Amino acid sequence: MSLHRHNPADLAPPTGFSHAVTATGTRFVFLAGQTALDSDGTVVGETLTEQFTTALANLLTALRHAGGTPADLARVTVYATDVEDYRAHARELGGIWRRLAGRDYPAMAVIGVVRLWDEQALVELDGFAVLDGPAHA
Questions:
Q1: Which among 40, 62, 100, 106 is least surrounded, fewest beta carbons within 10 Å?
Q2: In a 3-state reduction of DSSP, which class is residue 64?
Protein backbone atom coordinates (compact mmCIF):
# COMPACT_ATOMS: atom_id res chain seq x y z
CA MET A 1 0.00 0.00 0.00
CA SER A 2 1.21 3.43 -0.80
CA LEU A 3 -0.20 6.85 0.00
CA HIS A 4 1.39 9.94 -1.45
CA ARG A 5 0.44 13.32 -0.03
CA HIS A 6 0.37 16.23 -2.49
CA ASN A 7 0.77 19.77 -1.21
CA PRO A 8 1.53 22.00 -4.21
CA ALA A 9 3.53 25.15 -3.61
CA ASP A 10 0.96 27.20 -5.54
CA LEU A 11 -1.72 26.44 -2.91
CA ALA A 12 -1.81 27.82 0.62
CA PRO A 13 0.35 25.74 2.98
CA PRO A 14 -1.81 23.04 4.60
CA THR A 15 -2.09 22.97 8.37
CA GLY A 16 -3.27 19.65 9.76
CA PHE A 17 -4.34 18.19 6.39
CA SER A 18 -3.04 17.35 2.93
CA HIS A 19 -4.45 19.00 -0.19
CA ALA A 20 -4.61 15.69 -2.06
CA VAL A 21 -3.73 12.07 -1.43
CA THR A 22 -3.13 9.43 -4.09
CA ALA A 23 -3.43 5.83 -3.00
CA THR A 24 -2.48 2.44 -4.34
CA GLY A 25 -3.47 -0.72 -2.56
CA THR A 26 -5.73 -3.70 -2.72
CA ARG A 27 -8.42 -2.86 -0.16
CA PHE A 28 -10.50 0.18 0.68
CA VAL A 29 -11.85 0.60 4.19
CA PHE A 30 -14.86 2.90 4.42
CA LEU A 31 -15.25 4.17 7.97
CA ALA A 32 -18.69 5.05 9.26
CA GLY A 33 -19.23 8.33 11.05
CA GLN A 34 -18.01 8.17 14.62
CA THR A 35 -19.11 10.44 17.43
CA ALA A 36 -18.14 10.48 21.11
CA LEU A 37 -20.14 7.37 21.96
CA ASP A 38 -18.82 5.13 24.71
CA SER A 39 -19.21 1.34 24.58
CA ASP A 40 -22.73 1.68 26.06
CA GLY A 41 -23.83 4.03 23.27
CA THR A 42 -23.81 7.17 25.42
CA VAL A 43 -22.28 10.44 24.19
CA VAL A 44 -19.44 11.35 26.54
CA GLY A 45 -17.72 14.69 26.97
CA GLU A 46 -19.20 18.14 27.37
CA THR A 47 -16.79 20.10 25.18
CA LEU A 48 -15.82 19.87 21.53
CA THR A 49 -12.25 18.85 22.40
CA GLU A 50 -13.43 16.08 24.74
CA GLN A 51 -15.84 14.77 22.14
CA PHE A 52 -13.29 15.09 19.31
CA THR A 53 -10.83 12.96 21.29
CA THR A 54 -13.37 10.16 21.76
CA ALA A 55 -14.73 10.38 18.20
CA LEU A 56 -11.21 10.16 16.71
CA ALA A 57 -10.32 7.28 19.02
CA ASN A 58 -13.51 5.49 17.90
CA LEU A 59 -12.65 6.05 14.22
CA LEU A 60 -9.12 4.70 14.77
CA THR A 61 -10.49 1.69 16.68
CA ALA A 62 -12.74 0.80 13.73
CA LEU A 63 -9.78 1.26 11.37
CA ARG A 64 -7.52 -0.92 13.53
CA HIS A 65 -10.13 -3.69 13.59
CA ALA A 66 -10.21 -3.57 9.77
CA GLY A 67 -6.44 -4.06 9.75
CA GLY A 68 -5.36 -0.45 9.21
CA THR A 69 -3.34 2.20 10.97
CA PRO A 70 -3.72 5.99 11.06
CA ALA A 71 -1.08 6.26 8.30
CA ASP A 72 -3.48 4.38 5.99
CA LEU A 73 -6.14 7.12 6.16
CA ALA A 74 -6.61 8.72 2.75
CA ARG A 75 -9.60 10.95 3.61
CA VAL A 76 -11.35 12.15 6.77
CA THR A 77 -14.37 14.43 6.96
CA VAL A 78 -15.19 16.26 10.20
CA TYR A 79 -18.79 17.35 10.77
CA ALA A 80 -19.07 20.03 13.47
CA THR A 81 -22.20 21.61 14.93
CA ASP A 82 -20.22 24.79 15.64
CA VAL A 83 -17.47 25.55 13.12
CA GLU A 84 -16.50 28.73 15.01
CA ASP A 85 -15.86 26.62 18.14
CA TYR A 86 -13.88 24.17 16.00
CA ARG A 87 -11.74 27.00 14.60
CA ALA A 88 -11.22 28.46 18.09
CA HIS A 89 -9.85 25.10 19.28
CA ALA A 90 -8.00 24.16 16.07
CA ARG A 91 -4.56 24.15 17.71
CA GLU A 92 -5.75 21.90 20.55
CA LEU A 93 -7.60 19.61 18.12
CA GLY A 94 -4.44 19.38 16.02
CA GLY A 95 -2.52 18.27 19.11
CA ILE A 96 -5.12 15.59 19.79
CA TRP A 97 -4.86 14.42 16.16
CA ARG A 98 -1.04 14.23 16.34
CA ARG A 99 -1.16 12.34 19.67
CA LEU A 100 -3.65 9.75 18.43
CA ALA A 101 -3.02 9.57 14.67
CA GLY A 102 0.45 10.99 14.06
CA ARG A 103 1.58 13.47 11.42
CA ASP A 104 0.59 11.59 8.24
CA TYR A 105 -2.39 13.82 7.45
CA PRO A 106 -5.12 12.63 5.11
CA ALA A 107 -7.09 14.86 2.78
CA MET A 108 -9.61 16.50 5.12
CA ALA A 109 -12.63 18.76 5.24
CA VAL A 110 -14.57 20.34 8.11
CA ILE A 111 -18.26 20.78 7.40
CA GLY A 112 -20.72 22.70 9.57
CA VAL A 113 -23.97 20.89 10.30
CA VAL A 114 -27.12 21.88 12.16
CA ARG A 115 -27.08 18.74 14.29
CA LEU A 116 -25.89 15.15 14.33
CA TRP A 117 -27.76 11.88 14.85
CA ASP A 118 -27.26 12.02 18.63
CA GLU A 119 -28.50 15.42 19.72
CA GLN A 120 -25.71 15.77 22.34
CA ALA A 121 -22.97 15.10 19.76
CA LEU A 122 -20.88 18.14 18.79
CA VAL A 123 -18.60 16.45 16.23
CA GLU A 124 -18.52 13.40 13.97
CA LEU A 125 -15.67 11.98 11.88
CA ASP A 126 -15.81 9.58 8.95
CA GLY A 127 -13.31 8.59 6.31
CA PHE A 128 -11.66 5.94 4.24
CA ALA A 129 -8.33 4.18 4.20
CA VAL A 130 -6.39 2.15 1.63
CA LEU A 131 -4.69 -1.07 2.75
CA ASP A 132 -2.76 -3.94 1.20
CA GLY A 133 -3.40 -7.57 1.85
CA PRO A 134 -6.42 -9.77 2.42
CA ALA A 135 -9.34 -8.74 4.60
CA HIS A 136 -9.50 -10.02 8.16
CA ALA A 137 -12.11 -12.66 8.84
A1: 40
A2: helix
